[in-house]
User: What shape does this take?
Amino acid sequence: MSERRTLELDGIEAILPEVDRLTAGHVTVGSWTLAQICDHLTRSINLSLDLPAATEPPTREQAVYRRFFFRSRAFPEGQGLAHPSQEPDAGLDLGMAVEALRAAVDRLAAHDGPFAAHPVLGPMSRDEWLLFHARHAAHHLGFAVSL
Assistant: This one.
């Protein structure tokens, strides 16, 4: 059985080439399929764009979590879903999930308006959100291993 990969993505532009590479043949070593991973990433990106824009400064706890997150190169392990709507559906079509992720990444790349606050990390700048989504994708795509 394959083991989970340690994956680093340089930015959001590296997400889709990695997904495309995996669609050629992969196994997953976690509890989600690649389609579910793509669905979860799509939902996370869309939430950062679609929820109301952050208007309050970060709480002290959020500021601490943010400093820890951005000083670390890896996504924290063992985190639960930050928002209940991030739970991926079962039985998803991989092609459709990849296309939805492609649309979400394109939308994120083009977005220059305000962003929602992250439930744990609080309000973040555009650059922080882009880094967050790249690290989040690397974390989850590490559970898919090329054949």
Q: What stands out?
A: The mean pLDDT is 93.
